[in-house]
Amino acid sequence: MVKALNLALLQEMERDPDVLILGEDVGVDGGVFRVTDDLQRKFGSQRVIDSPLAEAAIIGTAVGMALYGLKPVCEIQFSGFAFQCFHQIENHAARYRMRSQGRFHCQMVIRMPYGGGVRALEHHTESEEQFYAHVPGLKMVIPSGPRTARALLTSAIRDPDPVIFFESKALYHAAKEEIPEESESFPIGRAQVVREGRDLTLVAYGAMLRVAREAADVLQAEDGVETDVVDLLTIAPLDRETIVTSVGKTGRAVVIHEAPKSFGPGAEIAASIMEGTFLHLEAPVRRVTAHDVSFVGFAREKANVPDVARVVAAARETLAF
Amino acid sequence: MVKALNLALLQEMERDPDVLILGEDVGVDGGVFRVTDDLQRKFGSQRVIDSPLAEAAIIGTAVGMALYGLKPVCEIQFSGFAFQCFHQIENHAARYRMRSQGRFHCQMVIRMPYGGGVRALEHHTESEEQFYAHVPGLKMVIPSGPRTARALLTSAIRDPDPVIFFESKALYHAAKEEIPEESESFPIGRAQVVREGRDLTLVAYGAMLRVAREAADVLQAEDGVETDVVDLLTIAPLDRETIVTSVGKTGRAVVIHEAPKSFGPGAEIAASIMEGTFLHLEAPVRRVTAHDVSFVGFAREKANVPDVARVVAAARETLAF
Amino acid sequence: MPRLILEPRFHVEYLSILDSEGNLDASLEPKLPPGDLKALYRAMVLGRRLDERMVRLQRQGRIGTFAPIKGQEASQMGSVFALRPTDWMVPSFRETAAMIWRGWPIEKILLFFAGYVEGGQPAPDQHDLPITIPVGTQLPHAVGLAYAAQYRGDDAVVMAYFGDGATSEGDFHEALNFAGVWHVPVVFICQNNQWAISVPLKKQTHSKTIAQKALAYGLPGIQVDGNDVLAVYVAAREAVERAHAGEGPTLIECVTYRLGVHTTADDPTKYRAQEEVAAWEQKDPLTRFRAHLEKKDLLEDGVEQRVDEEIAEAVRRFEATPPADPLAVFDHVYAEMPPHLRAQREDLARWLREGAAPGPAATPTPPGATPMRGQRLTRR
Amino acid sequence: MPRLILEPRFHVEYLSILDSEGNLDASLEPKLPPGDLKALYRAMVLGRRLDERMVRLQRQGRIGTFAPIKGQEASQMGSVFALRPTDWMVPSFRETAAMIWRGWPIEKILLFFAGYVEGGQPAPDQHDLPITIPVGTQLPHAVGLAYAAQYRGDDAVVMAYFGDGATSEGDFHEALNFAGVWHVPVVFICQNNQWAISVPLKKQTHSKTIAQKALAYGLPGIQVDGNDVLAVYVAAREAVERAHAGEGPTLIECVTYRLGVHTTADDPTKYRAQEEVAAWEQKDPLTRFRAHLEKKDLLEDGVEQRVDEEIAEAVRRFEATPPADPLAVFDHVYAEMPPHLRAQREDLARWLREGAAPGPAATPTPPGATPMRGQRLTRR
Ligand SMILES: Cc1ncc(C[n+]2csc(CCOP(=O)(O)OP(=O)(O)O)c2C)c(N)n1
Ligand SMILES: Cc1ncc(C[n+]2csc(CCOP(=O)(O)OP(=O)(O)O)c2C)c(N)n1
Ligand SMILES: [Mg+2]
Ligand SMILES: [Mg+2]
C-alpha cells in the first residue's frame, strides 16, 4: 500500500503545481513509513517540506497555504499525535468555508497512519476516526488496500474540502494488489459492496475489511451463510444509502472497527441502520470493536482488536437471534 | 447555577486542602462567568491560580499536580477552546492510571462552559461532549440544573478519575433551584428518571433537559401521552441500565442533544437501546439534535438547536410509528 | 574554554518618536505626506467613535459581545498603514480600526457581532482573513499565507495581529519558529495592551518584554511605544520593507493599553485600579497625534462629524438587513452538500414551511429586535 | 529617547570542563569523591552496553521498537547525578541510563519495549514518571509536579528531559513560560543531539542555540558540552541547587550527538553523512571520561563484564515473564470498573475460557516467541 500511496502523491504533484507536501521527516527521509519516498528529490525541498516538530503548526500553516490557494498534503507521523493539532483542524480547517461564507476554503489532506498490528508503542496503535467523523466540514476517509488507497488519496487531493486520510499501518506492507498505471479516483462519500449475499451484512473499513472478508469466507464455508460485505471507505459523510440498502435486504448486520466501542463509529452506523430500515431488522445490529480501554501494549493487542473468530461468533449470534 | 457551582467549590476546598483551582481569569476576576468568584480572596493565589493563557499547559500542569497527589479543578474558559489541550487530556489525563499500572492517577476535574443560548460568538456555543465520551479513562458529566450541578461537581472533585464537567451557559443564570446548605453528592455514572410515564422515553441532559420536560408537559396536556424523562447527568460511562429499563417499558425513545447529529452521543444511546431491548422497541429511536453544520452564528442559533416544538413533533412521529 | 560567553550577545531596541508630552524626535520622524497624516488621523478617530457606538449598540441588545479597541488606535493604524492592498492582513478579534482601513465595510463588522456569519466574508479581492476568535491560532495561518506567497513568487507580505496574552499559547511559539526556519515575509504585531482579560503581563510571562521572545527564534524583535502612531509606523514600515526584500520575519511589540473593557461582557473594576487607567489616559494615542497635527496645521474641521455620519449610515444599512435565513446554515459546510445535509436541510425547510408549531426554532431574532441587557446574559 | 537599547542585555554561557582532547580545566573541576566518579562511569557503561543488547533483542523480535542512547550517556548521567532520590525525574523516551540510575529495574525497561504495560509502573517509593512518548508533552507535567511540591512545602526539585526537536512543540513553550511565571523548582535538560529523526537542528529552529530560548521566559539558560560528564554535572548541580534554594527554573542545553539510529525502525544513512557521525565518534563521552579516570587511576577492572552480567540476568528475568494476561487490560482504566467494562471483561473472559475458535485474539505473543524481523514490520 505504501507504493500505491506514493504513486498517488507523485501523479497528483505532477498534475498540479499547487499540491505540496508538509510534515515531519517527509522529505529527505521519505516519511517514517516511506510513503513520501523520493518525492523531495523530484520536487524539491520547497514543495516537499521537512517541517519542524510541531503538529499544530503543520496543520496551521497548511491552513494558511490552503487559504492562499495551494493544496497542501500534510502528514502527521502517527494518528496518536494528531490531538496536538486538533484545534487547528476543528477550529479552522473544518470551518473556514463557513466562517468566510465561501470566500476561503481549505483544500487540504491530512494523512496519518492509524491502527495496530505492528508491535508498536503507546500512541502508535490507536484508531481515532470517530473524533474527525463527528466534526462538520471534515471528510474522513480510510482505504482498505492499495487500490482504494491510491484512488481515494487522488480524490482527497482533488477534493475542495479538508480530508482526514487514515492509512492502516497493518496494511502498509501486508496488503498487495495490482493497480493501474493511469491515475484513478474513487468518489469520496461512497461505500463499496465488495461481496454480495442475502443473509447478513458486515460493515467494515481499513484493516478490518480483511477481517470481515475472511469472516464471510468462514461463514460461507462452515455455515453456508451468504454475506454482504460493505467497505465503507469514507467514514464521514457516511454513505447511509449503501448500508441501509444492504441491511434492508439482509435484515442483520455486524459492524467492525478497531476504535473503542462506546460512542464510536459503530454507534452511528447502528443508529443509522435502525433509522433507515427499522422494519426490516431481524436482529439488533452487533458491534465488534476494541474494548473501551486505554492503551493495552502490543503484548495484549490481539486480545483487544477484532479478529475473524470474534466476528464469526458475533455473526452467528446475530443470525441465531 | 453559578452560585451552586461556587458553593460546591467552596465546600470542597474547605474540606480538602489538596483541592486547588487553576485557569484563565479564575482568580481576581472570579471567572468570566463568576463561578469561582471570591475563592481567591478566601484561599489565596497559590490555591486559586490565575494562569497564563495556554490551555494545554493548564491541563498539562494540572496532570503533574495530580500525579503528585493534589486534586486540581481546572477551568477551560469555553469548551470551544479545549481542543488546544485535547492532547494533554487524551494522551495523559485519561491514561496515566493505565500507563503507570495504578502507581499514578489523575484525580482532576476539567470544568468548561458549553452550549448555546447566550448570543455568543464562534467557539462559544458548541457542544463537544462526544469527543470526551469516546475516550476511555475519562468520565464526562453534564448537570441539568443548580442542584445536580452542585452535587455532581462535589462528586467529580472527589472522584479518583479525571472528570470532564460541562456547564451549560444557558443554565448559568436562567436556572434557579433551592439547594441544601449541607454538602450533597450524586453518584457519577448514574442517570435519573425525573418524570415517569409508560408511553415514551425522552433522554436528555444539560440544557436540553428543560426542553425534554416541557415537551413532556405538552405531550401530556395535548396528547395525553405519559412520558419517562431520563436526565443522563453522566454521559460516559453511560448508564445504559436506566435507559434500557425505561425504553424496555415504553418501547419508544427520543434522544435530544445540542451536539451535531452524526457520530454524536445520540448514536451511542440509540445503539445501546437497540442492543439492550431490541425486542421491546416499537419504533426506531429518534434523535433530535443540532444539524451537522459548523458554526451558525447566534442570529441562526435557534433554528439549529432542538426546541420543545421539534421534540414534540419527533415524539408524535415516534408514537405514530 | 570555560564559562565562555557565546557570541552574538543579544539586545532589544525600543523606538519612540512622538512621546506623550508631545516631544518629537524630528530625526526619526517619517516623511509622510500631509494626506497620509490626515488619513491616519481620520482612521484613528473612526476607530474610537465606532467603538463608542458599538458599545451602545451592545448595551441595547442590537449586537452581541464585542471587544473595543479604545487606546490601541495607534498600534493598529501605525502598523496596518505600512501595508499595500496586495499584502495580507491577519487580524485577531480586536482590530476594528485596521480592518476598516483594509476595506471591511462597517456594516459587515456590525453583522459579525450581531451573530450573522455573513459578517465574516471578505470581499473577493480583499487580502484579509476574517476575525479569529481562538487566541493565537491565526498566527500559523499567517505563516502559511506567507509561505504560499513566496512559493508562488508573489511579492506579498503578511501582517498578523495578536495580544500579549496570545504569546503564552503554543501556537504563537510554533508559528514564530516556523517563520524563522522558513524565512518567510511575516510581520508579527503584538498589541501588548498590558492585560489579557484580568491577567496582567507580569502573570502572563516572566520575560521583561515581549520583543525579546524573538530571540528564541533567531528573529529581529523590537519594542515600540504603541501609543505613538509615528513610531509604530516606522517600525512596521521597516519590517514590511525587510520582508518584501526577502529578509524574513520580524516581531514588533507595541506597548499600549486597553483603556476600556476587555469585551462588553467584562467588568475591569474587578481586577484593575482606576489610577492605572487614568495614568494611561494621559498617554492617549489620539490626543497626542491630534496635537501633533495641530502643530503642523493639518487638523481638519469636522472630522468627527463626518466619521459619525459614516457610522450612522452603516448602522442604518445594518439595521435594514433582512432576518437571517435559517436554511443558509447548510450552504458553506462543504463545497457540495452531501446527502445527509440535503436531508437535514429539507427537514428544516419543511418544518419552517408547514409552520407546524415551529416555536422559537423558526423565528430567529432579527438584529435590533428583542433588545436585552446583553452584558450579563452574554458572558455571566 | 529614540532607538534605545533596552537593559538588561542578554547573553548565553557555554560550559566545558573536560574536552574531547582530554584537556581538563582544573579550576572548574567538580570535587567529586572517587566513588561517585566510578559510579558515574559504571552507569555510563551500563547505558552503552544495554543499548547494544537491546538493539540485538529488537533485531531478534524479542522486543519492539526501541530508542538507543549511544553518545548521550554523559548528558544523561551528568544531569541525573545531581538529583536526590526525593527529587523527581521526568523522562522522555530516550533516557535509559538515567532511568536505571533512578532505580528502574532493567527488566521493566525490557518489558516496556516488549509491549507490556507492566513496564511503565514505577515502584511505590520512586519519584519518577514513566516514559512519555508524545514529544514534549511531559514538560508541563514536570512544572505541575514542581508546583505541587512547592505547594506542599516539600523540598523537591524536578528534572525534565527532552530533545532538540521537542523545543519546537507548543508544550515546550507553554511549560517553560508557566515555570517562569510560577518560579518553580524545575531543571529543563535538553539533550540537543543535533537530530530529530531526519531533521537537523538548523531545520528545526532558526535560533543559534537552544539555551537562548530561555530568554523568552526570563529564565537562566546555559549551553554545556553534553559529551563532557563533568560539565553537565556542574551545570545541573548549580541549577538543582538554585531550584532547591527557591531561585526557580533553569534551561540547560547539552550539546551532544545521537551516534546510533533514532529508533530501531530508523535508517540514518538516508539523511546524514557517515563523516558527520565519525567526527562525533571522536567526541565519544565514554572514551573521554574513561581516559580521565585512567589518569586519576580510578578505572576498575572488569566493569564491562560485571555490567554485562547484570544485563544478562535482567534479560533472563525478562524472558521468564509469564505471557501477558489479556484480562488485565480492564484493570487500570478507572479506579473502579464501571458496568460496561465489567461486561466487556466478562465477555472476553468467557471467550478465552470457552476456547470457542479463539484464534489469534486469545493467544497474545509471549516475549521471545515468534521472532520476526522487527525493523520493517514495526515502522515501515
Ligand atoms: C484559545 C483561547 N483561549 C481563551 C480564549 C478566551 N479569551 C478571549 S480574549 C482572551 C484574552 C486575550 O488576551 P490578549 O491576547 O492579551 O488580547 P487582548 O484581549 O488583550 O487584546 C481570552 C482568555 C480564547 N478566545 N481563545
Ligand atoms: C507529538 C509527537 N510528534 C511526533 C512524534 C514522533 N517522533 C518520535 S521521536 C521524534 C523526534 C524527536 O526528536 P528530539 O526531540 O530531538 O529527540 P531525540 O529523538 O533526538 O532524542 C519524533 C518526530 C512523537 N513521538 N510525538
Ligand atoms: Mg492583552
Ligand atoms: Mg534530537
The gist of it:
The complex is a heterotetramer, with 2 copies of chain A (321 residues) and 2 copies of chain C (380 residues). In chain A, 39% of the residues lie in helices and 18% in strands.
Describe the structure.
The complex is a heterotetramer, with two copies of chain A (321 residues) and two copies of chain C (380 residues). With 321 residues, chain A is of the alpha/beta class. Chain A has two domains: 2-174, Rossmann fold; 192-320, Rossmann fold (3-Layer(aba) Sandwich). Chain A has helices at residues 2-15, 39-43, 55-68, 86-93, 96-99, 129-133, 146-158, 169-174, 208-223, 240-250, 265-277, 301-304, 308-320, and strands at 19-23, 48-50, 71-75, 109-114, 139-141, 163-168, 192-195, 200-204, 227-231, 234-236, 253-260, 286-290. Chain A is globular, with a radius of gyration of 19 Å. The two termini of chain A are 38 Å apart. The model of chain A has no long low-confidence stretch (mean pLDDT 97). By secondary structure, chain C is an alpha/beta fold. Chain C folds into two domains: 13-319, Thiamin diphosphate (ThDP)-binding fold, Pyr/PP domains (Rossmann fold, 3-Layer(aba) Sandwich), CATH 3.40.50; 325-380, no CATH class. In chain C, 41% of the residues lie in helices and 11% in strands. Chain C has a six-stranded parallel β-sheet, with helices on both faces. In chain C, helix 8 links the parallel strand 7 (221-225) and strand 8. The longest helix of chain C is centred in the first third of the chain and has 26 residues, at 34-59. Chains in contact: A-B, A-C, A-D, B-C, B-D, C-D. The interface between B and C is large, with 52 and 63 residues. Bound molecules: thiamine diphosphate (2 copies) and magnesium ion (MG) (2 copies). One thiamine diphosphate (TPP) sits between chains C (94, 133-135, 162-166, 193, 195-197, 258, 262) and B (24, 53, 77, 81, 84).
